[in-house]
Amino acid sequence: MKLLFTVCGRAGSKGVRNKNIKDFLGDPLPLYTLSAISLFLKKHCSEYEKVTIAINTDSKELIEIAKRTTVDFVDIERKEELSGDAVSKVDVIRDTYRECKKSGQIEYDYVIDLDLTSPLRTVKDIENAIETMKNDNQCDVLFSVTDPRRNPYF
Fold it and tell me: How many helical (H) and strand (E) elements, i.e. helices and strands, does the chain have?
């Protein structure tokens, strides 16, 4: 089985300035996501034929933070047409998939997008998502959601 982890984060933000590289409890947010992937792989690496971690960004700061880890990742430079406020994250994930597939000639079984702004994610969360996908033949897409504290369409 072949996995592609996508980590997408563009530079800047209208809501919270540079939210993708903000510190949380003393460490930049990207380190939490990359650490969760790293811990997952330490536990499950032998179960997968190929695992690719791809960071799709136009932020030099984000890449510099990622380089501080031991995680081996592919840097996908965010295309300008995918950097605007109105761009769907699905389009960015799709572009990341295409770039990784093209460069490695790999057909991935699962694409797992992990948001940079979710520092409380655990290895168990990743395991549960993958198991849900494996066990449900009718499931094409899986989202983790929570009830919002406020209207998400502000």
Answer: 4, 6
Pairing assessment for the beta strands 27-28 and 23-24 based on DSSP bridges: antiparallel
CA 95 to chain centre: 13
DSSP codes joined into one string, 57-125? ES-HHHHHHHHTSS---EEEEPPGGG-STT--HHHHHHHHHHHHHHHHT---SEEEE--TT-TT--HHH
| 3-state helix vs strand vs coil in the chain, percent to 5 | 40, 20, 40
Q: Could you tell me if residue 25 is left (phi over 0), alpha (psi between -120 and 50 degrees) or otherwise beta?
A: left
pLDDT tens digits, one per residue of 100-128: 999 888 999 999 999 998 999 999 999 99
Chain length of the chain:
154
Phi, psi of 72 (to 5 degrees): -85, 115
Note the pLDDT tens digit of each residue in 19-67.
889 999 999 999 999 999 999 999 998 999 999 999 999 999 999 999 9
